[in-house]
Amino acid sequence: MHHQLLKDICTQSQLSELDIELCEKYFEPILYPKNKVIEEAGKVPQYLYYIVSGFMRLFYYDDNGDEVTIHINCPHGFFTSFSNFSNQTQSNVNTECITDCELLRINKPDFDALMQQSITWKNYSVFVLADSMTYNENRAKDLATLTAEQRYLKLMESHPEIIQNVPLQYIASFLGMKPESLSRIRRKIIT
């Protein structure tokens, strides 16, 4: 399961034998079933996850008790409540496997040790963080400036795998709309 993560890093950096050994030492392969909450709101996130296969989401419950999906991720990428994991503070979101997931996970002490032992891993983590910040800035801008239909069309274009594998109620919430609105948009696009 480490192969895909190593392949992704190779697109940014040259890996040494030590870098590969450290990956295999610190990243634990794990399988989770569909609909499994693996990190709960109200607790400190224990792991940073790398998605080998499957789809995950971050969500919280609003004042009405409704689920609000704030992030959906698909293979291949890192996933957790990043600021809470990094600062080891209590998170207000749940991390859930939407589908069966093959993951690699690393806890905070091992993550810190990995950053100390490998400049390649440290540089790659900076790249991942910068990429995540850019994504979140663009997402915030899209939520503020695009119509619901434009947001859906953009998601269809950029991540069709999410449209094909994630339940519509999660997609609707992620896009900032009700499921009924998303259904109307989808009907309009099809006709």
The N- to C-terminal Cα distance equals 42 Å
What is the helical fraction, as a range of percent? 40-55%
As for the number of domains, it is: 2
CATH architecture call of the largest domain: Sandwich
* Category by helix and strand content: alpha+beta
- Assembly of the depicted chains: single chain
CATH topology name of the largest domain? Jelly Rolls
Features:
single chain; 191 residues; alpha+beta; Jelly Rolls; 2 domains; 4-stranded antiparallel sheet; 9 helices; 8 strands; globular
Describe the structure in your own words.
This protein starts with a helix and ends with a helix. The protein is of the alpha+beta class and 191 residues long. It is built from 9 helices and 8 strands.
